Amino acid sequence: MALPSADPAKPTLRAIAWVFLAIGMQSFGGGMSAWIRREVVHRRGWMGEREFVGGLALAQIVPGANGVNLAVFVGTTLRGPAGALAALIGMLLVPVIAVLAMATAFTQLRDIPGVEPVMTGIGAAAIGMNIANGVRMMRKNITGRWPYLLLAAIAAAIGLAGLSLVAVLLAAIPLGLWGARQ
Amino acid sequence: MSGILVKLALLFLGLSLLAVGGGNSVIPAMQHAAVTTEGWMTDKDFLDLFAISRLAPGPGSLIASLVGQKAAGLTGAAVATLAMYGPTCLLVHAAARVWGRYRDAAWRVWVERGLAPVSIGLIFASAIALMRGTETGIAAPAITAAAALILTLTEFHPLLVLALGGLCGFLFRF
User: Fold this and answer.
1) B120 closest CB neighbour out of A115, A124, A141
2) Which of A65, A66, A94, B71 is 20 to 30 A from B12 (CA-CA)?
3) CB atoms < 10 A from the CB of B84, how many?
4) What is the full DSSP assignment across A147-172?
5) Chain B residue closest to A124 (CA)?
6) Do A12 and A90 form a contact (C-beta atoms < 8 A)?
7) Where are the domains of chain B?
8) What pLDDT, on the 0 to 100 scale, is given for residue A35?
9) What residue of A is the nearest CA neighbor of B168?
10) Band of the pLDDT at A5, cuts 50, 70, 90?
11) Given this model, what pLDDT does residue B39 score?
12) Burial level of B116, CB count in 10 A (0-12/13-18/19+)?
């Protein structure tokens, strides 16, 4: 639900930092783009569906970790360089500290019975979260038979056939643009 | 010491620029560099770090910080993290600024509509690849499917669904 406000597209830096801090603390098992879309588009309406999906494409195409790239895109779009830093530092602060702290305690952590199956279960659920996010974005952004076919072909080419991502992108981007021409 | 820091910086700078489509694609190259080329750790050490990066919240690419820590302590962690994220974040930032200038341009709307099936297709592709990468058995795909259904059809908090996934993992002990 997007709450009406004076300028919903311009949240404060503090609001951006808090939202990304919460994302960083909750995102067990990964699924960063799903968390970011939920908070930024779905719950707060800071960004429209189409703009978000365009940013997701940018985050995937530019090299680097997708979720981190996406945080920088959202921060930049909302509040320029300061927004990008707020989103980036907000999202990574807790996970960086957590991961370094856990490394020192890992041998004890690993030997706790049940930790491994619990993490496997969380990981499996996080993949489901990504799928649900994909379905929700599909509903909001994709119309017509051609874009659906292209989407399915990309998922199968990389996920099932194991084709190289760069090769698939080189073919898929022109096809996507061709399909969206007026 | 500073030699190690330079090596860490160059390694993660290179890996981040190779990571088109996400961080997972460069994990094997990272392992090769950290274990075989540099000898900072054993294969088993690297697998432990990989497990920790999945145990903590946040992006899995934080394994870069762990490799840096293993090689050169906290300074190493800082150097590896900055090298992994700094340059690519600057790239995205620059691209987002140019992109933002054309917010209302007709061609941008066209590009956004054209890229939507590509970016969403990649989301499904990585979900499929991740599912195929996990151990065989019915429990993990069942949890994935149930979580996908719940989060598509309802507004339950994702954290609740993740916790339920962890509980199911514990109960089934697959």
Assistant:
1) A141
2) A94
3) 31
4) HHHHHHHHHIIIIIS---HHHHHHHH
5) B144
6) no
7) 1-101, 104-129, 134-174
8) 96
9) A121
10) very low
11) 96
12) buried
Taking only residues 119 to 148 of chain A, the set having a beta carbon closer than 8 angstroms to any beta carbon of chain B reads 119-138, 141-142, 147-148
CB atoms within 10 A of CB A177: 16
| Per-residue confidence (pLDDT) for residue B138, from 0 to 100 | 86
Is A86's Cβ below 8 Å from some Cβ in B? no
ipTM: 0.92
B44 band by pLDDT with thresholds 50, 70 and 90: confident
Q: Which residues of A touch B95 (CB under 8 A)?
A: 58, 62, 73
Contact B108, B99 (CB under 8 A): yes
C-beta atoms surrounding A89 within 10 Å? 16
- Residue A8: pLDDT band with limits 50, 70, 90: low
Angle at A154 between CA A50 and CA B20, to 5 degrees: 80
Q: Which residues of B touch A147 (CB under 8 A)?
A: 116-117
Query: CA-CA distance, B39 to B11, in Å (whole number)?
Result: 13
User: What residues does each domain of chain A span?
Assistant: 13-141, 144-182
A19: its two tokens: 């939202």
